[in-house]
Amino acid sequence: MANAFWCIVEDDRQGTPKKVMAEVIGEAARLSSGQAEAVWFTDKATEAGLKQLAEWGANKVWLLENAAFAPYRSEIWTGAAAELAAKATPKAILAPVTSRQREFVARLAARLGVGLAADCVAFAMDGDKLIATRPVYAGKLLAKVTWAKAPWVATLRPNVFRPADAQPGRVATVERPSVATPSAQMRFVERREEVSTGLPELTEAEIVLSGGRGMKGPEHYVILEDMARVIGAAVGASRAAVDAGWRPHRFQIGQTGRTISPKLYMGFGVSGAIQHLAGMRTSKVIVAVNKDAEAPIFKIADYGIVGDLFEVVPELTKEFKKLLEK
Amino acid sequence: MKILVAIKQVPDTATQVKISADPRAIDTTGITWIVSPYDEYAVEEALRIKEKRGQGEVVAVSLGPERVKEALRSCLAMGCDRAIHLNDPVWNVADTLATAKALAAVLKQEAPQLVLCGRQAIDDDMGAVAAQLAELLGWPCAAWIMEETIDGDGKTVRAARQVEGGLEVFDLPLPAILTAQKGLNEPRYPTLKGIMGAKKKEIRDVKAADLGWAPEPAQLSVVTLEALPPRPPGRIIPGDVPTAVKELVRSLREDAKAI
Predict the structure, then answer these.
(1) 3-state helix, strand, coil in chain A (%, to 5)
(2) Is A143 within 8 Å of B225 when comparing Cβ atoms?
């Protein structure tokens, strides 16, 4: 299976793969002419989860199921993955950009002595070489990069690649390789949950609403949250709003915050500073609402309304409600 | 406690970047260079650890051409004690792994108890060097930390890393590597006294040969840089608020199929 493209599984830590894996497996299958394989580190996989990976297009699932793999520690995953890679010699190792995968594959690439391309937004085969495209310099340029040797290790920006269509009833071989689980130096202490907003995670949401300095204060974000609940969106903020203390840093979109690429981004009172654009310019549809007709965000917006967000937002919420009730 | 902070000099976010005659590189004329913002959090945290413990040494290290001295000088002005500049044309095309290997060689000589870096540099946004350095040295690593505390006897660091939906807290035996996320602290501005003092502090040049470095081909290389494909021109929707909003919702539904 020396031509296989591995897809490292990101899951919900409860035994179910995240839907971003449909994008990773779909892209891996496309690049390898159908030789995508899932590699799943978990303490407990579910049958439904295994079935899901097969239906998305994995031919094989390497199931590494062991209590030692949760919570994630790069030292343990790296040892086990390197051992398996030495035997199975995959052509590529792909993973979605998430907090743990970005660190894990960097470490794995160093162990294997190969190159890593992080946060890729496109791939193409050029003969027997893989060329990856990734944004650089605050998203102002795109770099095309390639590897000196396999396995080609890369992470994929979520929401950019076309997800595989699930093929109901498709099956995959499940292999449970025995690998050593090195003991970790890191000791897990605790997990502190954020106070849930009841809204989707910023980096996973298909629709993101973002409030900037034009929101005028922390108390007004509730109007964006109301709209978000109607259309199933996440709510983020610009750096100006975060630095003013209106929203916690985890909601910041941009260069020193989260990079997002939703189907629909709507900015309210966001001016569109370069460092904000760096975090959202690969969004598919961009809507901007701002009082200032000269705001830079209008230059990249597909649709713009020049107006007061405090009038536009309630009206928009009302219209979305009407539309979705139909 | 000896702490090493690995930093990178990058173009200022607001700077225009243009592709040079060599399409694999940017044209560096007229660029304003800064210390990558996340690295400033790393420097600040290192200085705070030293101040809290009342003793220790903070060493800034960076890889890159001559201009990188400016960035190291800024770190010295903030309060770092000395700096190491990996300054050799051999490293001009260093990828993350080559950079990590060069830093690993420095760490073997310096033997710090703690290494701090920013979560990623804001030029190539790879975010890989710290984890790769940890792997090469066999050290534990916690990325994107929001807080840290070192125990009294300097044996363990407790770090909270930002993950989806919360924080994960780990104890790491020292030596270890941490990468700084925004929110860890608020970096200080250099004082005038700091800036003056920085001029007298040591920046040691290190060549590849000093580290016994044997050049090796980059594992990842840039084929070409490209300008962004232009987005199709957008549309400002005219009319009073109710009319414009109705038209926006219709467009999102029927034209863009985004909702």
Answers:
(1) 30, 30, 40
(2) yes
**Closest to A209 measured CA to CA, from A286, A281, A121:** A286
Which pLDDT tens digit goes with each residue over A25-44?
A: 999 999 999 999 999 999 99
pLDDT of residue A1 exceeding 70: no
CB contact A199 to B (< 8 Å): no
d(CA B207, CA B117): 22
Tell me whether A87 touches chain B (CB under 8 Å). no
Residue A300 structural domain? 207-325
* Residue found by looking up tokens 């975010």 in the block: B127
pLDDT in tens, A123-154: 999 999 999 999 999 899 999 999 999 999 99
Best mutation site among B156, B248, B251, B253 for testing chain A: the one with the most A CBs within 10 Å? B248
Facing residue for A99 by CB, picked from B162, B176, B251: B162
Residues of A in contact with B258 (CB under 8 A): 207, 263-264, 284-285
Residue A83 neighbours by CB distance under 10 Å: 17
* pTM, 2 dp: 0.94
Q: Are residues A169 and A238 in the same domain?
A: no
pLDDT in tens, A183-221: 889 999 999 998 888 899 998 899 999 999 999 999 999
pLDDT tens for B191-239 read 999 999 999 999 999 999 999 988 788 999 999 999 988 888 899 999 9
Q: Specify the number of domains making up chain A.
A: 2
Task: With beta carbons under 8 A apart, name residues in chain A contacting B173.
Answer: 185
Please determine, for the modelled complex, whether the ipTM score is greater than 0.90. Answer: yes
Q: Which residues are bridge partners to A305 per DSSP?
A: A289
- Dump pLDDT digits (tens) for B34-80: 999 999 999 999 999 999 999 999 999 999 999 999 999 999 999 99
CB contact under 8 A, A274 and B182: no
A321: domain CATH number is 3.40.50.1220
* CB–CB contact B13 A274 (8 Å): yes
| CB count in 10 Å sphere of residue A226 | 14
Residue B11 banded pLDDT, cuts 50, 70, 90: very high
Q: Are residues A42 and A143 in the same domain?
A: yes
Q: Could B237 and A138 be called an inter-chain contact, meaning their C-beta atoms sit closer than 8 Å? A: no
- Last residue of one domain, picked from the residues A175, A198, A221: A175
CA distances from B188 to A322, B47, B48, B130 (A): 51, 10, 10, 23
Q: Chain B residue closest to A233 (CA)?
A: B259
CB contact, 8 Å: A146 with chain B? yes
**Structure tokens given for B249:** 């919702």
Q: Please tell me which of the candidates B17, B223, B228 has its beta carbon nearest to residue A145.
A: B223
Q: Residue A123 forms beta bridges with which residues? A: A132
Q: Which of B123, B131, B165 sits opposite A74 (nearest CB)?
A: B131
